[in-house]
Amino acid sequence: MEKEKIIIIKSRFLAEIGNSRNEKELYDIKVKFVGRNGELTKILKNLKNLSAVERKEIGPLANQARQEIEGIYENRKKELGSQVDWEKEKIDVTLPGEKISRGSLHPITLVYREIEKIFSSMGFEVVEGPELETDWYNFTALNFPLDHPARDMQDTFWIKSPKEKMVLRTHTSPVQVRYMEKRKPPFRIIVPGRVYRNEATDAAHEHTLHQFEALVVGDDINVGHFKYIAKEFFSAFFGKQINIRLRPSFFPFTEPSFEFDISCTVCGGKKCPSCKNSGWLEIGGAGMVNQNVFVSAGYPRNKYQGFAWGFGIERLAMMKYKIDDIRWFESGDLRFIKQF
Ligand code: PHE
User: How far is ligand 1, taken at its centre, from the CA of residue 170, in Å?
Assistant: First the structure.
């Protein structure tokens, strides 16, 4: 009697467990057979009421059945665990997808590219130099006297270095001498790059900014060439006719030196609030290369003539895109950058 029951219990267990689809169902089946009031448990509990002979036969059979059931349960549990739950994995292909946001170029990068495109079309070479610069290239070779205020700690980031005095370059002009040491005139180059100044920042001043230098050297390069190239460049850059105005100024590395302005990009020179009713916008510095700079680069004195200019790319970008605060550029604020 008991023996048959055990065989039937085992086969029913096997059948039911084969149909179980998840761990919960599986567990319920196990409880039904070997739980506290399970069918097999009842037989085990009843052993004490059997005769000694029967007990000897049924006892081991029942215990073995119990072990088998536990074993089968564990195996099936593993099997179910490794199965894909199709209910959970179901994909609704009609749902709207997740949007992947598109990156965009920083306005400084855009202006860089525009500048390089225009100057390449005029036969200029694009040259770069190091941002960590020696005192020699940043100042001395460019004819800065030892006591020049730009060399002051208040204006410039000096870097402790074991050998030479080093600075975070304050302008792109050091690349003038670096380039001329390697090349003989005639040549025309532009030098875009990042520069650093120890500034108290405000809407018009940043500690980290970008400049681009132009340097054209030959036997008879003169101020007329400079004006022409500047006019061509700014007209191409702003997509309208631009005029150039020079005002006398001073830089140690140019002689004579100028500040130069362009006709207002908003009113075209007719005077408006953008140009503070002057008709002109200040752009940057320029001049004829000082002969002392040629000598620093190893050229003979008074053999060549050239012009150089340098100015801030941020300022150009601010004019082109009508940006009101220079601090946006280095802010890392995506709301700003995504507009370009
Ligand atoms: N390097 C100068 C500056 O940063 C600009 C300049 C460049 C002036 C070339 C004249 C010639 O202010």
Answer: 10
Which residue's C-alpha comes closest to atom 2 of ligand 1?
310
Under the banding of pLDDT at 50, 70 and 90, the label for residue 91 is: confident
Beta-ladder partners of 202: 205
Q: Convert 129-158 to b/e letters by CB count within 10 Å (16 or more is b).
A: beeebbbebbbbbbbbeeeeebbeeeebbe
- pLDDT averaged over every residue in the chain: 93
Q: Which amino acid is at 326?
A: I
Alpha-carbon distance values, 210 to 67, 118, 132, 157, 267 (Å): 78, 18, 14, 16, 26
Q: How far is the CA of 123 from the centre of ligand 1 (A)?
A: 22
Give the per-residue pLDDT at 259.
96
- H or E segment to which residue 310 belongs: strand 305-312
287 lines ligand 1 (CB under 6 A): yes
Kind and range of the H or E run holding 318: helix 313-321
User: Is 0.85 surpassed by the pTM of this model?
Assistant: no
For residue 165, the model assigns a pLDDT of 86
Q: How does strand 208-218 pair with strand 187-196? A: antiparallel
By alpha-carbon position, which residue is closest to atom 5 of ligand 1? 310
Nearest CA to ligand 1 atom 7: 310
Express each pLDDT in 238-290 by its tens digit.
999 999 999 999 999 999 999 999 999 989 999 998 899 999 999 999 999 99
- Which atom belonging to ligand 1 lies closest to the Cα atom of 173? 1
pLDDT of residue 227: 96
